[in-house]
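Risk register update: the risk of archive-format incompatibility is retired. Evidence:
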Amino acid sequence: MDVDIHKAAGIIIQDRKVLSLRSKGGTMFLNPGGKLDPGESVEDALVRELFEELTIDVKKHNAELLDTYYAPAATQPDKKLRMDTFIIHEYDGTLAASNEIEELRWLDSTSDLTNVASLIAHTIIPTLKQKGLID
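Archived output:
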């Protein structure tokens, strides 16, 4: 499938809630992660982006592919997104918003999902709930 944006995303679960974030100046809450650099593997992009955004160190063997999703990009609906989404089982460091991230928010199926990317609200959260990983 032809895509405009290829993103690697991390699913971090704590206390039966999944982490989302909002970039500075942004309005939508997204999954942690970001676009692949040219020639970069999905796993390398995932590790790099989670360190850049959340100051945590993830080892590739602690990331398990949940699924690959195709959808309109949340912040650019005219662009087609491919998002390889990984459940992060373990990481080193303390979760903290980096200088490019304005806010972290923990979500479950009962959260207000008004400003949450459609893919997260309508696909990822229901999938995580169905798997018994979040409330």
